[in-house]
Amino acid sequence: MERERAVVSEMLEGRTALVTGIGPGMGRDISLALAREGADVALVARSDKVLPAVADEVEALGRRAVRILGDISDPADCGRIAAEAGEAFGGRLDILVNSAFHGGRHETFEGADLAKWRRPMEVNYFGTLQVTQAALPLLKAAAAASGDARIVMVNTMSVHLIEERAGSYAGSKAALGAVTKTLARELGGYGIRVNAVHPGYIWGDSVRIYFEWQAEERGDGATWQDVYDERAAETCLGYLPHSSEIAGAVVFFASPLARCVTGTALPVNAGHWLPPSA
Question: pLDDT-based confidence at 268, cuts 50/70/90?
Answer without folding.
Answer: very high
